[in-house]
TrEMBL record:
Classification of source organism: Bacteria, Bacillati, Actinomycetota, Actinomycetes, Kitasatosporales
Name by which UniProt lists this protein: inositol-phosphate phosphatase
Top-rank taxon, per record: Bacteria
Keywords carried by this UniProt record: Hydrolase, Magnesium, Metal-binding
Coiled coil (UniProt feature): none
Enzymatic reactions: a myo-inositol phosphate + H2O = myo-inositol + phosphate
Amino acid sequence: MIENNDETIEEFLTRHASDVEDAVRKAAAQEIMPRWRRLADHEVDRKAGPHDLVTDADRNAELYLTEVLAALLPGSAVVGEEAVHANPASYEAIRGDAPVWIVDPVDGTRQFVHGEPGFCTLVALARRGVVHASWTYAPVHDQLATAVRGHGAHLDGERLRAGSPEAGRDLRVATSHPDFTTDAQKRSLLGLWTDGVAPRPCGSAGLEYLAVARGESDATAFGWEAAWDHAAGLLLVEEAGGTHLTRAGRPFDIRGGNTLPFTAARDAATARRVVDLLADAA
């Protein structure tokens, strides 16, 4: 069982990071990919609204990961998107002292339901608000991005370095999709519609973070706090050399209480530029 120091989490990762990777891959192979482009009507439901979809792939993959991850790390908690939907109080484990696995079984469910490839499985291991490791798996392309705090970010074993945006080119910024954005957030995001910035609605949040870590995109601008969407990707961007900031000028806290929207960016200058534009429009 993990003791009350961070070194033991690092030791756990040294021994078991590959086991987590195997669990993520198996969840996708057993529960997600067999249903991709084969979903029956009864396997798709709506949660909070017409765009908030959930499928049997989401539910079953999360159940599999919950069982395996909890067994790998006795004493840990699991916070999964679908379990929190069923029992919102379970989200409080993120604010506790025990290590917590943060799971989004299918990030980009709408794309998954439509038979598109832009979805992924997200797993992060955190404690007391600090994300120590993350796994981002895009099963259609069999691409796995991993990050361990202090040890870098990798995509299929190759080191990721976000770098800085190309001088003179418009910043490529993925923003909260209008279907999931409040009127106030839309007003704040309007600050990005300016010279030198090329905003667009986001797809899967996990894949948008991966694009920033790879240097394919310059930043994100998101207006919601659900940790399962952000924890894995924020560490990936950090370990690739990027950073993240809220409108209050502080790093995003996965436990909540952030001033929104916030950004994750390839470098500090880009993060500050995006946040300044958001603040001006608030």
